[in-house]
Amino acid sequence: MSRDPADPAVIGAVEGRIDDRDLPLDGHLHTVMSPDANVAIDTYAEAAIARGIPAIAITDHLDFEPGAPAFAHADFATRERYVRDAAARWADRGLAIAFGVEITFQARYATEIRSHLARHAYDYAIGSVHVMRDDPYTAERVAAWVDGRSFAEIVAPYFTEVLAAVRSGLFDTLGHMDFVKRYLAPHVPPTAFAAAPEVYEPILRALAETGTGLEVNTSGLRQAAGETYPAPWVVERYRELGGTRVTVGSDAHLARSFAFGLGRGYDVAAASGFREVAFRRGGTRSRGGEAVAIPNPRPVPTAASG
Ligand SMILES: [Zn+2]
Ligand SMILES: [Zn+2]
User: Which ligand is nearest the CA of 182, by number?
Assistant: First the structure.
């Protein structure tokens, strides 16, 4: 039932079906300013120009739990200078670089996160729930955690925190809504998530109510989950419930992952009826105040069409 994270059939099947060029934005990227990435910002900028992608958002990690990897990796001023300097250098070449952040949401640090966001001006703030060292989903704990528990019990700690992240109203966008699929993949397949829409429903309603955007994160296409975070049906349901705001991002931590699966991600958004990237809370404005249109969904090429 489970998929091997390194299963080349899964990765290959995805790579054969996507066209990651001429898309409006890669809205989720990690550089050397993240503790788990070592990509120079200019590497992404060059790749974006080569692929006809006119806007990127740098969203390096920021953690609030003392001792967590991105708690003290790079301070705000360093991160801001790094991104703003590059933005100034690349603007002439037609590339817009937004200074964003991906904050790890933990309800117990909500006050600190609120204070940080009130004091620091980002172009864009993603709030994400990650698997932290004390969580039950770490590689050492996950097998014991799933043993004897129902699906609802297994995912409850993760989705409870996700709901709190949305209700906090702190973020422009919710990052990789069901990222826990990655950690559960050896034990709980993505089909089990698709069979449990009730787990997603309160979060989708809260997204719509708070005006928080939903990210279609394409990193799942290159990981064991083999599908976007979240899956296409979740994006569709978000729209049905009144959600109006989506972004698409590769969540690259490596140069080769830049824009990976982005074409698929935009197709997911477009197929659910979204016509524009909603980059910031309060509007669909992105580079230079222009709304950024999502391309029409493209047909999935068959083997015969090459
Ligand atoms: Zn993340
Ligand atoms: Zn990320």
Answer: 1
- The reported pLDDT for the residue numbered 297 is 61
What pLDDT sits at residue 278? 84
Show the low-confidence residues of the chain (pLDDT under 50).
Answer: 1-17, 283-290, 300-306
- Topology of domain 8-284 in CATH is TIM Barrel (3.20.20)
For ligand 2, the distance from its centroid to the CA atom of residue 223, given in whole angstroms, is: 14
Q: Which of 184, 186, 211 is nearest to 199 (CA)?
A: 184
Distance 241 CA to ligand 2 centre (A): 26
Distance in Å, CA 183 to ligand 2 centroid: 15
Q: Which residue has the tokens 């990193």?
A: 219
Region at 241 (left for phi over 0; alpha for psi -120 to 50; beta for the rest) = alpha
Residue ranges of the domains in the chain? 8-284
pLDDT in tens, 22-52: 999 999 999 999 999 999 999 999 999 999 9
Q: pTM to 2 decimals?
A: 0.89
Whole-number Å distance, alpha carbon 31 to ligand 2 midpoint, is 10
* CA 52/CA 68 separation, integer angstroms: 36
CA dihedral sign of residues 250, 61, 237, 23: negative
**pLDDT at residue 277 in the model:** 87
Residue 257 CB partners (closer than 8 Å, separation 6+): 219, 222, 250, 251
Annotate 171-202 with b (16+ C-beta within 10 A) or e (fewer).
bbbbbbbbbbbbbbbbbbbbebbeeeeebbee
Token pair, residue 264, equals 């698929």
> How far is the centre of ligand 1, averaged over its atoms, from the C-alpha of 305 (Å)?
35
The CA 128 to ligand 1 mean position distance, Å, reads: 6
pLDDT of residue 209: 97
